[in-house]
Amino acid sequence: MMTIKIKSVLIGFIFLVSGCSSVTTKNKPIDTSIPSSHKTSCPNWQPGETIKIKKNITIPKGCSYQRVSFLLDKDNITFDCQGAILNGLTQNKPNSIFIAYSKASEPRNWALLVHTSGVNIKNCHIKNYIDGIVIKYKIPKDKHRLLRKKTNVVAIEKQLRQNAPQNITISKTKIHNSHKHGIYMQRYVNNVKFDNGEIKYSGNSAIYLESGTRNNEILNSYFYKNGYTNYKRKHRMRMPKYPTGEREAIAVDSSAYNKIIANTFKNNGKGAIFLYKNCFEKHKNIRQLPRFQHSNYNQIEANTFINERYGVWLASRQSKQLSRFKCGDPLMYKSRGLFGIEKYYHDYAKYNQVLNNTFRDVVYGITVEDDKNKLIDNKFSGNASVDIKIGTPYRVISEDDPVKDTILKGNIRQDGQLKLRFTDRSK
Length: 427
Description:
Elements: E1 5-9, E2 49-53, E3 57-58, E4 64-66, E5 69-72, E6 78-80, E7 85-87, E8 110-114, E9 120-122, E10 125-127, E11 131-135, H1 141-148, H2 153-163, E12 166-171, E13 174-176, E14 183-185, E15 190-195, E16 198-200, E17 207-209, E18 217-219, E19 222-224, E20 229-232, E21 237-240, E22 248-253, E23 259-261, E24 264-266, E25 271-276, E26 299-301, E27 304-306, E28 310-314, E29 331-337, E30 340-345, E31 353-355, E32 358-360, E33 364-368, E34 374-376, E35 379-381, E36 386-390, H3 393-399, E37 407-409, E38 412-413, E39 420-422
Parallel strand pairs: 1-2, 2-5, 3-6, 4-7, 5-8, 6-9, 7-10, 8-11, 9-12, 10-13, 11-14, 12-15, 13-16, 14-17, 15-18, 16-19, 17-22, 18-23, 19-24, 22-25, 23-26, 24-27, 25-28, 26-31, 27-32, 28-33, 31-34, 32-35, 33-36, 34-37, 35-38, 36-39
Antiparallel strand pairs: 20-21, 29-30
């Protein structure tokens, strides 16, 4: 592994300037005692460094950096890039698939790592990192042990959300060519807002909301061609995802009370927005935890979906064959398939609202595989197999329990009759 040099920098405000050069050759902390009239050059952060940010910072206009990472290390600070380019590589674009990086040239893990609250990130152009922005929370060991045992879960999860990073804003920020995720929110992070941004070409999901996260907002942003590749750290290589392994732009994994409003989704791998509950994958690994929260009470409103395979999928793993996931949840149904035993598990996504969205040339506009969801005033046009599909086969086969209590109102196909499909006696 490469040794990462940690440089702690106490940084004050650096006032607006332009015409800065790239990374300078010297390596020293910014001297805040220098008169502001002389603070006209780009900070001299060097490739391979991880910079600790403990105060507000405004990067001068025109700066760019290669293979530099930033650890936002204090509550209630602002990190304003002013358009600065943060590049996780020494080259402009990632290697093509199957072309490995050398150990010296591999992408940095992240551009920005946040583990504090009240942080404001804005005006950044992030590209070519493994993950663009990671909002991190490490669960204390004693709480981890209790959650593994499913002991006192409600009280512990409430405490963890109170202690996790929260009240974070990411605005007017572009994240391109992440080898994995654009933004990754770890467990119990809450009240994060991503506004007026753009995430394109992430190998995995553009935004991943992990288990226990809540009350996040994704607004007025653009998501394009995410979810087509995977990055193998061991081999330092990008790999293609097969059709069954392609990912969605926004993964809502056991995450609740989120708002996804007024965004545009186009040409993403498997689809745009998937809501599901992880089945406690790889449960024998001591580091893994059950998922207790369901993907409930989310609001998906006024978004535009263009040329997607799936637009919105509620309970997207209800009918997914999960034997290779090594799930710890109770088994719902199994059968013998062509390649061995197939396993299916309950998925949970209830009380969600899908309102006033526009779907153009989406193969499956809205798919519903759990109960008590509202689909109201959505508009469909162009090529589609099904505009709204409601039903879940394996839950019906195993438990005679079709999807129920779906509220449908005001949904229309603008160029013809709505393509509505009910399966498995759903109602």
